[in-house]
Amino acid sequence: MKRKPNTLLPLELSILGASIEFAMSSDPEYHGYAMAKLLSEHDEDRRLTAHGTLYRALERLESAGMLSSRWEDPETAAAERRPLRRLYRITATGEGAHAAALQGAPVSLANLNQKLASS
Amino acid sequence: MSMWTSGASRVTRSWVAIYTVGLARDVRESRFAEIASDLWEQQHDAAREGTRVLAVTLSIIGRTLRGIPADLLWRTNVEGPQMDIRIPIERVMGGVLIGMVAMMLITAGISGIDTSQDSFESYFIAFSEKSALENNLNALFRIATGLSLVAAAGVLYSATKDRTPTLAAIVAFGLIAGAGLELVATSLQIVLVSLSDEYVTAPVTQRNSLLSEARTIAVLVETTTGVAFTTMLVSVYTLAILTARENLVPRWLIGLPILSAGIVGVSTFMSTAGYWDDGMWFVLVGGGLLGVVWLMIAGFWLVFTPKQDVVAPGVLPAGT
Lengths: 119, 320
Fold this sequence. Notes:
The structure holds two protein chains of two kinds. Chain A is mostly helical.
């Protein structure tokens, strides 16, 4: 899908919306599969987002400053005998972008960051 | 975790290995780790929820396939439009070696015409019984093989000329000569096919001379193919010396081409000394095939365990 300037793609908007849901829960951080699962629950055909599409969108949102990520403590993964998780969470910029997009306003990172800095 | 879901995960991981090849190690490892985590979570989530194995397997494969365009775009974005794929040259060599297995077997496949006085006619007539399309495709396939051999010679020469220029030149020369002879044999076979068509419609009085002419050409096809295969074998033996000398493949692997050269040499000598029979032909072919087996093993070795720290001859690593 071709991106218009200062707009979010539908998947990016969904990811930000789901990230806000995570943020309001007891654990604001989530891994890629958890995001794919939550998105599928909101989706009519309940299909999990493709790996390439999901991780590319997460990376784009992170580079735009709307999400932040960190690799979890290796000891936690080792204790649970599973691969290391990359944990994402929404940033204030991401929340602002989501709100702006829902109101149909252009998502200008410069404006959002300016607003955040002044608040 | 079932065999099916594990298999699907392997497919996904293999795809990640393909589209991240040559990227910076941290970028590659990060993508690998993230996908590995996703696959693990999906399989465990499915097991917890009692989702059917087939559904999970199809979901994993589907997610991989649907994500391919995004993966390729991601790859382009990571490196920009000027993509710099740093595939180790040894891996490229390995791929060429594996390709050469097919090329050599196709070359050997040209021969097999029984040129003896008694049996030749039935072999000869068989050409006319094939459709024109089949014969044309066959010729095109062989021409493509000859051209691929020239390309293989170029790649192998570029990959090895800085290490051992003489051996690299021998390898390339052998392959180019083999390719040229393969193209000659293919052209002769095209002539043989047209003669065969002429033969079946010719009056009985002309048939003997046509058959004799065709048999001469068939002998030429057989001889040319044999020489082509031999020159390629010489390239293979030279490659074996080169790769062993440069520690690109385990040294013990050179036992195969040595055995192959021994068998081919002894059986060729015995045939010229007049001890030729059908059994000897099988020994000769078996000996040649050992060289092809070396190609396959060495090719896979180079693809999967490329030597990254090769030091050019005469250059000492820093700090020594």
